[in-house]
What does this fold into?
Amino acid sequence: MIAQKREGSRKRRTRLRLFSLTLLLSCIVLLNLPLYPSLVIRESASNHLVWSSKITSEQTFALRWTHSIHRSAIEELYRIEDEHLILSEMSFHDYGIGMENELAPGEELVVKDGLFRILHMNRKFPALHLFTGQVRANHTLLFAGSEIPLSSVVEPGTAITIQVEKRSILREIGGY
It folds into this structure.
């Protein structure tokens, strides 16, 4: 009788251990599943994450910087679609060296109040690669009502990649 009680007790402990192990492994898997689409900025050389924010489908953001020759502001508007970045509009004050000089089919150039705007753009990128300005560019991310100078997240002159990634709960918490 005592042997039967010990055997029953061992079976319960074994089941509890198996249940606990299964529960632990399930939690680890769930925490690592890539669930949340996020806009991320990474240092290109190291792939180190320097900034991220959750996004929704069709969300927009803009990049603004000062042109090195014209010394005027340029702003590019992007929308996020199926993990791609779509350049949808560009605005600038001076038309000349280094500026768009050809329109793709369907694009329209509008000049109003001294501002050039290229509308109806549909240029698709899997990621944006750029060097943050060291002298006057002052690259700034315009996202969700905030202006984020890229010099506040990386050193000027750093090569960065801006892209959409699906991130897990664990990555969001841990920041990697």
